[in-house]
Amino acid sequence: MKKMLKVKWHIVAALLCCVGAVVGTSVGQAKEAMLLDKVVAIVDDDIVMHSELLRRVNSISTRLRAQGTSLPSRSVMESRVLNQLILESIQLQLASRAGIRVSDNQLNETINNIASSNNLTLEQFEEQLRLEGETYSGAREQIRREIIVSRVQQREVDRRVRVTDQEIENFIASKEGRTQSGAEYYVGHILIAVSESATSEVKQQAEARANRILEALKGGADFQQMAVAESDGRQALNGGVIGWRKESELPSIAADIIPNLAVGEPSTLLRSGSGIHIIATLDKRGGKNKIIEQFHVRHILISPNEIRTDDEAKEIIEKLYERILNGDDFSVLAKSNSDDPVSAIDGGDLDWVSPGQMVPEFEQMMLSTAIDQTSKPFRSYFGWHVLHVLESRQQDVGALVQSNQARQVIRRRKYEDELASWLQEIKAEAFIEVKDERYLSVEN
Asked: DSSP labels for 392-412?
């Protein structure tokens, strides 16, 4: 259902720009100027101009052609892009009302990261945009819009996604879960070749040789050196190394044995039509065993919002940082000032934090801060922080990591479904009036 249109003076001005700008010109010139641009759609308190639609269509078309992707008809392309612009406008207005903004410094950092990820300097990036028919200022503004849209989506959709413990257990137990989050084994193989048709004497000699190698391995001999010297297998000159294998990819002859071997422990003698085998787990990663360094951390978060700009948030955190350096109690300041409602109750305490658990900016600062020290103020997606590292420890978090990996997979899938539903909802609630009858289907 559409809501009532709120008339705003800036929209009236925009609607009149097509005619107001031609005052003082001839009637013919006025008609020509009016054809230069027009309102394609009204979206709540915003408008989509025809020139904006054409720029976006041309930009997307250029990119798709460069990728070798065939394009739909022009009318289909314009309708789809208009729908994208309408949804973008609704989300940008939501972000504005929520106080979500992107500072110039954040934007500059993002653009530099985009350029470097494409192995380009900023100057080369600007030149590439020019070759693709884009202006740097136009691309910069579009990147700003995309960051804001991404943030408002995370803000609104994240809270709608719930992953239960039962869903995690079911995923880990599934075939897909075992493949994605199960352990990987670095497998070594020694083969003593003997055919099934060999004489008893030859088989006995092979058996004796295999037992001699196995005893040497149990006594501490290096597996890879033994493989080079003794193995008849294809990987002998590579130290018998088969490589990293997930549980579902293990050699069938040892699929049930390898997961139960300690790192470096050789298997018993295994027999097949090609001879006698000795398998070893040379290394292991993932699964239910993983030793990592954890940090006990507390922090104070100051977030920009509807009444506080990013610069004001930064100024507040810097003053709090000075007070900490001058001896004020971190815990007390966190309780009375932090915008993280969960940790603020506990004096900013985040408990034990594992690598990959926090956003990159937070983790980088945590790793570079010494034990019992407070970091300088820094910014993340959530706002401005200072953190204090209380202590560190070595911890086996294999089961937790496995659970978190499963949670992330399930959450990503649910997020996409919830995002699609949310976009439909906000579009249904918005006032949308398409002014060009060629695109009327987009309004629904």
From this structure: EEEEE-HHHHHHHHHHHHHHH
